[in-house]
Sequence to fold (766 residues):
Amino acid sequence: MEEALVRAVLFGTPILLAALGALLAERSGVVNLGVEGIMALSALAAFAVALDVGPFLGVVAGVGAGVALALFLGLFAITLRANPFVAGLAVAALGLGASGMLGKRYEGVPLQKVLPEAPLALLALLLALVLHLLLYRSRFGLYLRSVGENPKAADLFGVNVEGVRYLALGLGGGLIGLGGAYLSLAYRPSWTDGMTAGLGWVAIALVILAAWEPLRAVCGAYLFGLLFFLQFRLQGSVPIPSEAFAAMPYLLVILVLALSGRSRAPKALGQPFERGR
Amino acid sequence: MLRLENITKRFGPVVANRGITLEVGRGEVLALLGENGAGKTTLVSILYGLYAPDEGRILLEGKEVRIPSPKAAQRLGIALVPQHPELIDAHTVAENLALGLDLPPVFARRALLARLGALLQDHPLGVDLEAKVERLSAGEKQRVELLRALLNRPRVLILDEPTSVLTPKEAEGLFQEIARLKREGLAVIFISHKLEEVLALADRIAVLRAGEKVGELSRAEADKERLVRLMVGRSPSPPPKAPPPREEVVLEVENLLVPRHGFPVQGVSFCLRAGEVLGVAGVAGSGQKELLEALAGLRPYRGKVRFLGQTLPKEPARVFSLGVAHIPEERSMGVVGGMSVAENLALRTYPAYARLGLLDYRAMEKEAEALMAAYAVKAPSPRTPVRFLSGGNVQKVILARELKGGPRLILAMHPTYGVDVGAAEEVHGRLLDLARQGAAILLVSEDLDEILALSHQVAALYHGRLVGPIPREVADRERLGRMMAEGRA
Fold:
């Protein structure tokens, strides 16, 4: 039982970090569907640097890769006002493809210095709290929420809409990158192509399930963590094909999304902003 | 205090402002009067840093200033209350107000509330600071908007059509507040197309027409007729007179109820005879839109509705084919922007243009040309997409389509909103022509003068209930205002 809870938290941590990152961007009105790709590329960047230099710089590299790829998405979704959904999917594909290609020589290489999971899990929990305070108790948070709800009004008050959106998307990318680094440096210290295994998509669903609230995302992430744990544990011990178990968390995502169709999204979510239109 | 010199702004080939020079002093109210599309809002947007002027300069207390953004305008002490409240619905009142403040990077909710409380001491808000804005009425929202503009102690306050969302009584309160601000030394620019307001409030009146300043009068020199002549460029025609209604009953509505998030329309009953105009006033959001959409078949409702003795179907296309025209509240609801004028005009009747199962575009465009001429729609050709047309012309396209078949019942919501005085007169003439031919008209409008000029009966919607109807003869602005604001006839 205790083991189950610990594993749930440890497995929920990357989902939590990625969800927090997506949530931050979405509260500012930018949809980030690139989470899966950003996570994969950051996991690789973190692993590669950790192997050559050290695990701490590895974490920095993971976060940095996440920020960079998220800002790249911003170039299309914010500045060029491309369709943010398509741009996000493209970034997801780009991140997955690039990490698979660049990561070939790291496949199966063991990592000497492994990061401990528990402190990182604690950090993720702390970050959720910080994010909550940032959103509701800071000037930047007020601006961010305003931009996500009504960019035109925010612009009239003198808020720099695009600047706030870039910051939110970039910071969010950093959080997603941290999630990726956690995967490849702590949770499963290695690099394999496709090691994110759909966690990024789960994180996007979790944002909706959590109604765009960081603290609710914590509970949701650990719930998913528990499900993934159960899936591993029950495999083989029950006469049901393992594929059915493997599909379980994802089926749950769909179920949750179908049932939570009414939760209130930021009003300007997915709408590019242009002054005077 | 503030001076605009030779401001010109073009949007492509359209000149929105041409060489406009204006000045407003400390403790003065300058009214900018003009029809929709005269360039008032463009001028204000330039002052507030939303657009950059192509030519001309802006002087503040004698020094030339550049206003590249709303933030810059705020720093210079220029504040704006926009035409439609630009508030963030999901935030509390306090959070909305905080957006106008210089906030510390991190703040406690309680400290913010205390600070706002202190700032608002002289300006009672009348609403809970912690209420969500989406719960407020339009008038309360505007109050929040005004107070936010005042928080930073501006030198120049711009009000863009501030009374369009207010009841007459709320407007009265706003005027008193403006008079007080004026005494405190604020320079106020007040934008309006309503003559009474301008005459009641302004020290000086500048009139814009088609992007140019066509006159500037002091309050003493101005009177209604002179202002209309300047605004429209000709003398106003006398208001049209509605012909007396006939005996035949066209529409009977009994206990109509629209269920949706509560009941936006609660048990409305009335009766309309052929040739009769029922004018319905009401504060925005009192159920007007829901009532009309229900009758047009666009919303489910309960209750009995009989049209020419038959139960009205609840399907938009069938309702129309029986002879019910609908002029919707929002123009964008009435047209498909990406489609051409001709296609939009044919939307209700396109099967008539079928030839061998294909649309006969030549016939469609020919008829469209005739309709465009009849309704004075200004567009390069019937093939021009509607989204390139100005608001007034889009409205004419809707009217042409809805009225061409000679309807028996016209559901009209704000039929002259945003069209110029000349076009509005035309619309009124057309509606009354149809009334003369036996059409019944349900007219919802924010313009009390329009309602009083055209209607045989007047009523108001008040929180989804119909107050009245009462005969036009016993109604006036004050009584109608009371019906809107207090729900009593």
